[in-house]
Each structure stands twice: as structure tokens, then as C-alpha cells.
């Protein structure tokens, strides 16, 4: 199975796609290793598909370190663990949102009920934790901190926003916690497990968090502008669920500052008084939002966060070269061998940086 994202870096695709297939096989093994009662719910969402963006990012950033370690079982297990964690959050999200479908299939709680869906998510978190435990204490600590941020972000989204807190800033922090933190962990695992060095770790973590925010902002645009036949997403799903995504928050921000135009006021009025369960009303609101500048502004915000993520990679090549030289010299290699290893690392870092830049733009260009 290859990721839904096809990088325009053939040299990386040749390395990563076969590994993605191995990760996919391992993932399906891990979600189906209990009994005939437990296996159907635990394998339900994994079997329904998905882009596997997070495993792909683990494998991609692993190429920044030792070439042999990049293909190791540890790296593959880290890729499985982050995807298990992501899938577990989907089980819990669908219960909270009472979502009828996920990835084109009935959601778990529609098939087995809320209690079973919650417990299934818990089981997957437990299995991810067991896999991470084998990666060492640093990985365990990083995973625990990330899972806390996932939950913190969900709580901040669920509970009332404190008075005086800017709604747009609050929402960006929610996105950073709910989505950016786990994507950042992917980069951390890839570099940590292959000895790419502390500087490279910090760079790809920052990249991951920023691209996570960009990804979610792009999703906000897609929720309004998508063609359901091509994306599989029904336009206005977030509106129907009462979720204030960035375009709506920008409307409310303008209302609070006295700068909202009549078109925006009409949208907010429909959101508060209209029956969005009626398809005609929902379609009307979606169309009005498509035509309002706040949607284009959200698209621009996604692009800006993407640009920041790419800019964070500026020193990646030098960081990898420095760590590689230190590692090879510590191994007692000759100067010629060190030089050869450093040049190889530089070439790989340049390829990976291109891949990460492509990865970022592909995630955001979906909203173009």
C-alpha cells in the first residue's frame, strides 16, 4: 500500500514505498491480534484505509540519519505506533461528534455502540504504548507528552473558551495540539531512532507542528469548497456539527470589531437561526461562505503556515552533516571515510528536504 501522497522525488519514493507496504502489513497485524470478538472493532478503521501520512513522515525523516537504521524494525514500529495513536483518536472523535461515517464506512459506534468504540480506541492506545516501550525511555516520554497534547487540544475545543482569549489564536493552538503535535512526533521519531542529531530533531518537530496547523486550515476550506464526488466529503459537515472552523471564526472576529459586512452578518444569522439539518439551508450557508472573503483568507492562512513549515527546514542540511560527522568520527573512521559519509548524508538530506517541501505543499494544495 502506498500513501495517497505521491512525492515528486523518485529517489525517495523508491525507498519509502516498499517500507510503507511493510508498515501497512505490520499495522494490520497489530490491529488484528486478539480474538474474534475484539478483532472486528480494532481493525475496523485501519481496514477502511487512510492516507498514512504520519507513517510516511516517520519513514521520510528517518532517511536523515543512519541509512541502515532508517530501514530498521524500530523505525517501522514507530510508524505503526503513531498511526495507531491517530486511529485511536478517530474512534474517540466519532463518539464525541456522533459521526455516522468515517473513511466511507460506518463509524465504530454506529456498528458496536459508544462504549465499545471508546474501549476500542483505548485498546489501540495501549497497543501503541507497548510498541513505543520497546523504542526506549526517550520515545516513551515523547509519546506520553504528545498524547497529553492531543487530549488537551480536544478539551480546549470542547470546553468554553475563557473570556478575553482571542478566538482565532485559541483555535490555532487547538490545531497545533490536536494535529500538529502528532505530526511533529513523526519527525522526532524518524530522526531520534536513526541518530540524525538533536538539531535535526528540533527542525523537523517545528516543521511537523506548523504543517499540522496548515493541514487543518486546508481541511477547513475543503469542508466548505469540496466536491463530494471527488473528495468523499460532504460540504458543510463541520457546520452541521456546530464546529466553528476558521472561516466562521473570522466572521465572528470581524463582528466583534465592528468590521463585518452585511454578507457575513447574513451567514452568522443563518448559522444561529437557520435549520442546518435542512439540506437547502445548509447548501445556502455553504455557498455564501464560499463566496465570502473569509474562505480565501483561510486558504491564505494555510499557505502561510505551509511556507513557515518549509522555511523551518532551511538549516536541515547543515544540521544533518554536523551530526553525521560527529557520529562517524566517534566511530574512529578515517578522514576519507568520514568525508565520504558526510557527502552521502548531505545528498540524502537535500533529497529529504525536497521531499518534506513537497509533502507540505501537497497537504495544503488540496484546498486550492
From TrEMBL:
GO biological process, one term: isoprenoid biosynthetic process
UniProt-listed Pfam families: polyprenyl_synt
Gene Ontology molecular function, alphabetical: metal ion binding; prenyltransferase activity
InterPro entries in the record: Isoprenoid_synthase_dom_sf (IPR008949), Polyprenyl_synt (IPR000092), Polyprenyl_synt_CS (IPR033749)
UniProt KW keywords: Magnesium, Metal-binding, Transferase
Keyword Magnesium attributed: yes
Cofactors that this protein relies on: Mg(2+)
Family from the record: Belongs to the FPP/GGPP synthase family.
Listed name of the protein: Polyprenyl synthetase
Organism: Actinomyces graevenitzii F0530
Amino acid at each position: 500500500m502506498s500513501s495517497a501522497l505521491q512525492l515528486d522525488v523518485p529517489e525517495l519514493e523508491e525507498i519509502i514505498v516498499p517500507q510503507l507496504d511493510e508498515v501497512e502489513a505490520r499495522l494490520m497485524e497489530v490491529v488484528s491480534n486478539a480474538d474474534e470478538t475484539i478483532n472486528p472493532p480494532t481493525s475496523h478503521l485501519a481496514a477502511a484505509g487512510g492516507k498514512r501520512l504520519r507513517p510516511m513522515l516517520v519513514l521520510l525523516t528517518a532517511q536523515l540519519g543512519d541509512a541502515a537504521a532508517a530501514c530498521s524494525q524500530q523505525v517501522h514500529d514507530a510508524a505503526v505506533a503513531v498511526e495507531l495513536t491517530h486511529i485511536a483518536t478517530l474512534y474517540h472523535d466519532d463518539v464525541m461528534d456522533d459521526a455516522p461515517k468515517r473513511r466511507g464506512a460506518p463509524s465504530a459506534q454506529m456498528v458496536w455502540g459508544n462504549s465499545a468504540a471508546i474501549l476500542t480506541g483505548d485498546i489501540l492506545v495501549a497497543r501503541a504504548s507497548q510498541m513505543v516501550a520497546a523504542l526506549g525511555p526517550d520515545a516513551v516520554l515523547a509519546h506520553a507528552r504528545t498524547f497529553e497534547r492531543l487530549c488537551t487540544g480536544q478539551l480546549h475545543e470542547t470546553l468554553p473558551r475563557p473570556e478575553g482569549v482571542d478566538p482565532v489564536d485559541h483555535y490555532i493552538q487547538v490545531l497545533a495540539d490536536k494535529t500538529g503535535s502528532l505530526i511533529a512526533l513523526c519527525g522526532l521519531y524518524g530522526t531520534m531512532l536513526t541518530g540524525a542529531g538533536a538539531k535535526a530533531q528540533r527542525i523537523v518537530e517545528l516543521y511537523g507542528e506548523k504543517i499540522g496547523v496548515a493541514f487543518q486550515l486546508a481541511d477547513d476550506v475543503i469542508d466548505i469548497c469540496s466536491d463530494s464526488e471527488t473528495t468523499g466529503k460532504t460540504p458543510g459537515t463541520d457546520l452541521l456539527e456546530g464546529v466553528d472552523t476558521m472561516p466562521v471564526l473570522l466572521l465572528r472576529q470581524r463582528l466583534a470589531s465592528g468590521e463585518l459586512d452585511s454578507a457575513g452578518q447574513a451567514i452568522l444569522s443563518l448559522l444561529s437561526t437557520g435549520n442546518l439539518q435542512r439540506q437547502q439551508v445548509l447548501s445556502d450557508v455553504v455557498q455564501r461562505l464560499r463566496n465570502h472573503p473569509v474562505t480565501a483568507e483561510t486558504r491564505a492562512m494555510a499557505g502561510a503556515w505551509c511556507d513557515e513549515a518549509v522555511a523551518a527546514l532551511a538549516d536541515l542540511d547543515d544540521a544533518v552533516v554536523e551530526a553525521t560527522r560527529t557520529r562517524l568520527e566517534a566511530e574512529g573512521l578515517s578522514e576519507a571515510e568520514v568525508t565520504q559519509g558526510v557527502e552521502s548524508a548531505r545528498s540524502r538530506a537535500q533529497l529529504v528536504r525536497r521531499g518534506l517541501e513537497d509533502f507540505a505543499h501537497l497537504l495544503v494544495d488540496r484546498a486550492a
